[in-house]
Task: structure prediction
Amino acid sequence: MVDLPAILGGSPVRTRPWPSWPRATEEDEARVVAVLREGVWSRADGPWVRRLEEDFARVHGAAHGVAMMSGTVTLVLALRALGVGPGDEVIVPPYTFVATATAVLEVGALPVFADIHPGTLCLDPDAVAAAVSPRTRAVIPVHLGGHPADMDRILQVARRHRLAVVEDAAHAHGARWRGRSVGSFGDAGSFSFQASKNMTSGEGGILLTSREDLFRAVRSLRNCGRAEGGAWYEHHLLGGNHRLTELQAALLVGQLGRLEEEGTRREAAGKVLEEALPSVGLAPQARDPGVDRHGRHLFIARYRPEEFAGLSREGFVRALAAEGIPASPGYPYPLYRNPLFQNRAWDRRVTGPGDARTDYGRARCPVAEDWCRAAVWLPQQVLLAGPEEMGDVVEAVARIRRHAPRVVRALGEAGRS
Ligand SMILES: *Cc1c(COP(=O)(O)O)cnc(C)c1O
Result:
């Protein structure tokens, strides 16, 4: 039989399913059922939430954790507790999920986009330094795909300009930079437990901090502005109900227990791909030598059509899907190209009309633009299959490359590049 790519009618390289995600063990099920039967599904400072907060903070080397209902709310409350508000600017990368920037708008401040590093895809410390203005109050580095941002140099820039640092670690549970866990470097570190993330309770998030003042403020903001030990209907701060439920926390305690082992598996699988993919035409996200543990929420590589007879990235992703490899092109454009920013679709709390700084039509981050055109992402559950199974990914890529001219013709892409 001829070795045809699956998109041209061959049989797929991968027919066995990848690990399903999310997944729950029998122990998880038993724990959740026990919480259901006990009857306390949520309460301020419930025992499962408390245990999750203490364990997650300890594992990541921070003094405190505050669990919440999403990894967006954790960012918003961190900024609010830091006193960031109208008139302030916060530096963010444009190659990230929209929450990194909308959290800034939610507190009435202005996101200022600084470009990413061309190798690691994380916020570039030099671009941060260049974006600082007298109004800059904070910076939000994102540990993109699980690769820690250069925290040494970002903290250096932040100290020089007296900026607060909120790490967006939504992709980076358990990741380590020079021996220390992400989420413990900045004034606060934000994690998401949304369904796709490496730890999940469907929705959820946690904020880490070792600052007592922030810890107290964020706990109050999460809990309708109540004071520690105060009465239930006595409110001190403009907070809201942003609590995580006991059911969710019980699930997450089980996952936290598996995080190191699952992380080791994903990391080992990522190393196989890092070594093998360049020889079949893909260039992986660079790995800074300061990274001790890549969080591996994503495996990201650069796709070059010239290595594949001019096949478009979209055609390549389709061909991979046909082989049983669930890849995606990732973020389609830098955040500032979203209608939200182009139309300035927010109210006057943020800026009055005509403020040139909100003219995001002029924002230019060439490195992020370039990666938005070139990236191919693999999701974490593929890596969770372990290093032994990465041969399927490599073989699928190699096969598409071998037959690239035929794939180009079949997809009617001839002449493009
Ligand atoms: C998922 C995510 C968040 C938070 O998202 P929620 O869905 O609100 O938990 C923040 N930043 C990044 C980069 C993310 O991927």
Observations:
- The first strand starts at residue 64 and ends at 68.
- The chain is about 35% helix and 15% strand.
- Residues 70-72, 96-97, 99-100, 142, 168, 170-171, 192, 194, 205 surround pyridoxal-5'-phosphate (CB under 6 Å).
- The mean pLDDT is 95.
